[in-house]
Amino acid sequence: MGRLVKALKIGTVSYSKGLLLQKHFADLHNKNYPTNSNVLLCLEHHPVYTTGIRTEQYTDSEVTKLKQKGAEFFRANRGGLITFHGPGQLVVYPILDLRQFNPSVRWYVSQIEKTIINLCQKYELKAETSPHTGVWIGDEKICAIGIRGSRFITTHGLALNCSTDLSWFDHIVPCGIEGKGVTSLSKELNRTVTVEEVIPKFLDSFAEVFECDVDSSWKLEVEEIVQNVGV
């Protein structure tokens, strides 16, 4: 296929460390690092609510109430509205140079959606897009998408509910969409579907949809990078 994307399986990290990891790899692109510096950061977060740049300011009391549930709260420089990240949810931050694929953010978001739909098909689940952002099974969102593009370099990404405790979403209006629910692979399949199980299938789907080669053997560098990125 030619294009190479490296997949980093990072484990569970804080949201702030996830931001720093994204910055680290985005900076490599911006410094004209070798062209194979496209990466997928595959990880889970400790419980955290995040809002995008279009979200109206949450009051201090609203933020305090969310924090009292046991989660952190961050305002992120991504698209999309409020959502939750936590254990059992596969978060993927693709740090890509779109000039090596297609320099269109709309195309990129569509490819992310197609990747998740392809992944769900591997589980014989019918997922689809809607006028609302993300990927849905019926009226319930299974994957949230919120991305940022700057000088053709992508950051932020997607959050796929695998075995997520969906009660965390009870305290918010996910992605600002009233009257809709959330679901997970575990809920749909009536069994526990772990992030570890899903990652290889996600990488296969990503490679198919983005027409690239994905190298998931990059492990020593992960440990070094995580240790060197301070919080």
Written account of the structure:
- The protein is α/β, with parallel strands linked by helices.
- It has one domain: BirA Bifunctional Protein, domain 2.
- It has six helices and eleven strands.
- It has helices at 15-30, 60-68, 105-122, 185-189, 195-210, 220-228, and strands spanning 4-13, 39-45, 48-51, 72-75, 83-85, 89-95, 135-137, 140-150, 153-161, 181-182, 213-215.
- The strands form two sheets. Strands 1, 2, 6, 7, 8, 9, 10 and 11 form an eight-stranded mixed β-sheet that branches. The protein has a three-stranded mixed β-sheet with strand order 4-3-5, covered by helices on one side.
- Helix 2 (60-68) links the parallel strand 3 (48-51) and strand 4 (72-75).
- Helix 3 crosses helix 5 (195-210).
- The protein is globular.
- The N and C termini lie far apart (37 Å).
- 42% of the residues are buried.
- The mean pLDDT is 89.
